[in-house]
Design goal:
- This protein starts with a helix and ends in a 7-residue tail after the last helix.
- The chain is about 60% helix and about 0% strand.
- It has 16 helices and no strands.
- With about 325 residues, it is mainly α.
């Protein structure tokens, strides 16, 4: 018996009856030879971590566009915070930590440059709309690995696709990531909004702070504990109704006062204008797209609008600005 087989036996012996077991995965689109050491979900975690799309997250906006301070979150640090919270919950509930980790690490791979402002821009431009969870799946199924995709398991793909609020993941591990995503971004975005002087702690309604806690550490601790206590021994993952209601109120407060803050609307309009011009440029000059994307368009696998959206969605903030400057801004004269 090899190391992987022992790990699979340990999962069956130790994990909750509601947990997803590696040996019982629905598999991959392209069957692969099993590894002697790693389980199927461990392989997926490693493939995601080593992908180019994962590395690009460090230069993609979370909420605050091109912040000057060193301590604002990026899409990568957000992903790591979600992963840490999700693993803590999964371990406490005896769910599959490796599956949880793989979903969490991959859930935002398809996010655009400039956060949700970039997503809104592409959603307007692309026929049929643009949603970052669907793009994340497209990244791991099609765009990564020179067009070969990462060939992830069904359970990881499902968790990535369904991490948004209105979706329903097929596994409890997917549900853990879905809730962990909210716990992470609401709390770290409060920290960053206070750092940016957009809000102060006293601006948040008193009853929310009294219920959930005065600091991010206190709020995350309470939310994780409440979730674990309310979900133990159950085939579901859910916060107690009272806590869930207050968390929704806090999320609404953040959308009204931070995510659509009018102080930054001017910058959002600039970003939408920049991405719109880049989109139009590459629609008119598809041969300037990367070779792998242009190849898919030439072979009829994607139409040009889909290919251009893939390219722009994969850009980092600074690369998008660099390409815009190279294409649309006049170069300085030499002497």
């Amino acid at each position: 018996m090899n190391i992987r087989q022992r790990a699979e036996q340990d999962e069956k012996r130790i994990l909750s009856p509601y947990a997803s077991k590696s040996a019982e995965s629905k598999g991959r689109a392209k069957p692969m030879q099993p590894c002697d050491i790693r389980t199927e979900y461990q392989k997926d975690r490693d493939r995601i971590t080593h992908s180019k799309a994962f590395r690009r997250l460090k230069h993609k906006t979370q909420v605050f566009i091109s912040p000057e301070g060193d301590h604002y979150r990026t899409r990568l640090t957000h992903t790591l915070e979600v992963t840490q919270i999700a693993r803590t919950i999964a371990r406490a509930l005896y769910l599959n930590e490796d599956l949880t980790e793989a979903i969490a690490l991959g859930h935002d791979l398809g996010h655009t440059p400039f956060g949700h402002t970039g997503e809104d821009a592409l959603d307007t431009l692309l026929p049929g709309g643009f949603r970052h969870n669907e793009q994340s799946v497209r990244v791991v199924e099609i765009l990564e690995n020179n067009g070969e995709g990462l060939n992830l398991t069904y359970e990881v793909l499902d968790g990535i696709r369904n991490h948004r609020t209105k979706c329903v993941p097929a596994t409890l591990e997917g549900l853990v990531v879905q809730i962990s995503d909210k716990i992470a971004y609401i709390n770290h975005d409060i920290d960053d909004a206070i750092r940016a002087k957009i809000i102060t702690p006293s601006d948040i309604p008193t009853h929310i702070m009294d219920t959930l806690g005065q600091t991010s550490i206190q709020r995350i601790d309470l939310l994780v504990r409440s979730l674990v206590e309310n979900s133990q021994g159950r085939n579901t993952i859910a916060l107690p109704i009272g806590i869930a209601t207050v968390l929704r109120e806090l999320r609404s407060y953040m959308f009204e006062n931070v995510y659509v803050n009018q102080l930054h609307q001017k910058e959002r309009n600039k970003i939408k204008g920049m991405l719109t011009q880049l989109y139009g440029y590459y629609i008119s000059k598809p041969a300037e797209l990367p070779a792998d994307i242009y190849f898919r368009i030439q072979k009829g696998r994607d139409d040009i609008r889909r290919g251009v959206a893939d390219y722009i969605a994969g850009m980092t903030d600074r690369f998008a600005m660099k390409r815009f400057e190279e294409i649309f801004m006049p170069a300085a004269w030499g002497h």
